[in-house]
Amino acid sequence: MQGTPLWFDARAKSPVAFVSHAHSDHIARHQRVIATPETLALMTHRLGPLEETSPLRYGEALAHEDLQLECFSAGHVFGSAQIRVTRGDGHRVVYTGDVSLEPALTAEPAPVLACETLVIESTFGHPKYCFPPRASVYDDVAAWSRRQLERGVRPILLAYSLGKSQETVRQLSVRGLKICAHPKIHDVGLVYEQLGMPVGARRFEGTFEDGEVGLFPPFRRGDSLAGVKDKALAALTGWALEPWGARRSGADVAFPVSDHADFPSLVSYAQKSGAREIITVHGFAAELAASLRGLGLFSRAVTEQVQMVLL
Q1: What CATH number does the domain containing 286 carry?
Q2: Cα angle vertex 77, ends 72, 80, to 5°?
Q3: What domain range is 18 assigned to?
């Protein structure tokens, strides 16, 4: 926020930073962190003790100098949050962080927040990214896993260790599958459970039990699976919509499981927010901004300059 020492998801150490969630590309050892209690716990798990923290729960407000901060679910991962900052003049700025409007079992639903200025993530902000309903994709993942088990092959799912993995455990458990998770995934799940969010996967200690589906981080399986001879790998990623989606993770197949909003959801959020100015960040920021301008909205990517209209 210009004129006020408040950073959003700063990558470098900052005096005061709001952290939307605990993924590694959104956290740093700030002097003071404003975040949900869940994100603070997950940050501590990943970074160690933090200098100063200001827990901010969903629906709560916090005064910061002349600003009023409000926190709401982002629907991305457990504890992820959007923030609405109201200035002294009443102008409201919303920063979504990574956001998802899809129903989830490990994240509260994300509301669309009314504002004058919207700063929205645009990881999948290109019209080519339109995800199937999450439930139907997990149905496909479960069916694929059962087919592998029936033919004597160990199904191994590849998903990020924080967020998508815990969601996958819950989704496949309700579909009757047993999950054995890489220690890194399992340890994050223990933090979830300490915070009241049940997960329930067995920790991988080098071998699988009958009927188990393996769950591993996409780039950390290393020698852990060296002794598993008959296996099939499936990547759970929004990039599955690309022809290189499976190859990117070294997998045999890929399923479009994403905890980010797709293009139609991002457009819907922007329209429903009522924002007079929309700033797109990350990913396909320029493409999303151009699409929103085509719908008559004032929008620019964070890297673009505003061109004033001469009358």
Answers
A1: 3.60.15.10
A2: 30
A3: 7-128+260-301
Adjacent-strand bridge partners of 279: 119, 300
Q: Is residue 310 part of a domain?
A: no
Query: Is 142 in the same domain as 86?
Result: no
- Residue 2 located in a structural domain: no
pTM, to two decimals: 0.93
CB 157 within 8 A of CB 214: yes
The per-residue pLDDT for range 82-98, each reduced to its tens digit, is 999 999 999 999 999 99
Closest CA to 142 of 134, 189, 19, 132: 134
Position of tokens 């600003």? 67
Here the tokens at position 154 are 């160990």
The answer to whether residues 75 and 40 belong to one domain is yes
pLDDT per position as a tens digit, 56-70 = 999 999 999 899 999
- In the numeric block, which tokens belong to residue 10? 């700063």
**Paired strand residues for 277:** 117
Beta-ladder partners of 234:
157, 253
| Helix/strand/coil for 281 | strand
- If you search the block for the tokens 């798990």, which residue do you land on? 45
Question: What's the pLDDT tens digit per position in 246-279?
Answer: 999 899 999 999 999 999 999 999 999 999 999 9
238 and 138 share one domain: yes
Question: How many structural domains does the chain have?
Answer: 2
